[in-house]
Design a protein that fits this description.
Layout (H helix, E strand, L loop, with lengths): L6 E6 L3 H12 L4 E7 L2 H11 L3 E5 L7 H7 L7 E6 L3 H10 L3 E3 L4 H21 L4 H13 L5 E6 L2 E6 L3 E7 L2 E6 L3 E4 L3 H7 L5 E5 L2 E4 L3 E6 L5 E5 L4 E4 L1 H11 L1
Parallel strand pairs: 1-2, 1-3, 3-4, 4-5
Antiparallel strand pairs: 6-7, 8-9, 8-12, 9-10, 11-12, 13-14, 14-15
């Protein structure tokens, strides 16, 4: 089998023993090429974006960013086939059963591993022929988006690097042409996104739009100064001064009430 036809595979698990076990079993498969090993969710997202594997063995329970969040973060059009790896977890097992997705329950033996890999091979062949993402994974993605209506983190790509910005770290967001500029305590990142879409991604319990070109984190507001014609000057904790226009003042008043 040529390298072009090998199944390019990424292994993602925060447990060294599990990573070593999967690597050893994959090494016995002549049609598999390991293109990366990751120990956490953020590096997995970056590796999927960079290496574009065909298949990912993806641990579910990882600190900081779990396997479901990895799937939820990746563009569906770029999502490879997935075999989930998990210790006993009722929520995870329920999700796999509902969507008929394959998973490996730790600890697993060689026979169970090879069964999962065989299923992945079959799915990959069908997807390559049809040119579409596994509909079961699409269904899981839809459920994840329904459960997580508001983003918990944003993925920002810049200069070949990938940054992960937790929404709770955002101080305020400003419009910048076809982009939005996300301000945190120590950094500012540009993200190709409209203000309207950005507003819809942020939890309104925490974020409020105060101007057509500004969204603020309520918890980062230090002071409000009344201004002309029903407007306010919003003073952020870092000293930034923003104008809350009269059109959006009602939203601001309701948010801080």
């Amino acid at each position: 089998m040529t390298d072009q036809k090998k199944i390019r595979t990424l292994v993602v698990d925060d447990e060294e023993l599990a990573r070593d076990r999967i690597q050893a079993l994959l090494a016995e498969q002549p049609d598999v090429e390991i293109v990366g090993i990751c120990t956490d969710g953020p590096s997995a997202v970056e590796a999927i974006d960079r290496a574009q594997p065909d298949l990912v063995f993806l641990d579910v329970q990882m600190p900081g960013m779990d396997g479901f969040e990895v799937v939820d973060t990746i563009d569906p059009g770029a999502m490879p086939a997935v075999v989930f790896v998990t210790a006993h977890d009722a929520h995870a097992l329920r999700a796999f059963e509902i969507h008929a997705l394959d998973f490996l329950l730790k600890p697993f033996d060689q026979a169970r591993f090879e069964k999962a890999l065989d299923r992945a091979r079959g799915n990959l062949n069908r997807e390559r022929s049809a040119g579409v993402l596994d509909p079961r994974l699409v269904s899981l993605l839809e459920e994840l988006h329904e459960e997580r209506k508001y983003s918990e983190r944003l993925i920002v790509k810049s200069g070949g690097r990938v940054f992960f910005v937790r929404t709770e770290e955002i101080d305020w967001v400003e419009a910048s042409g076809n982009y939005v500029k996300i301000h945190t305590k120590n950094d500012a990142h540009l993200l190709r996104e409209s203000m309207k879409n950005m507003e819809s991604r942020l939890d309104p319990k925490t974020f409020v739009r105060i101007h057509r070109s500004a969204i603020v984190n309520i918890d980062r507001i230090k002071e409000l100064e009344p201004w002309f014609h029903g407007e306010y000057i919003v003073i952020m904790r870092d000293g930034t001064r923003l104008t809350a226009s009269r059109v959006f003042s009602d939203r601001l008043s309701a948010a801080i009430a």
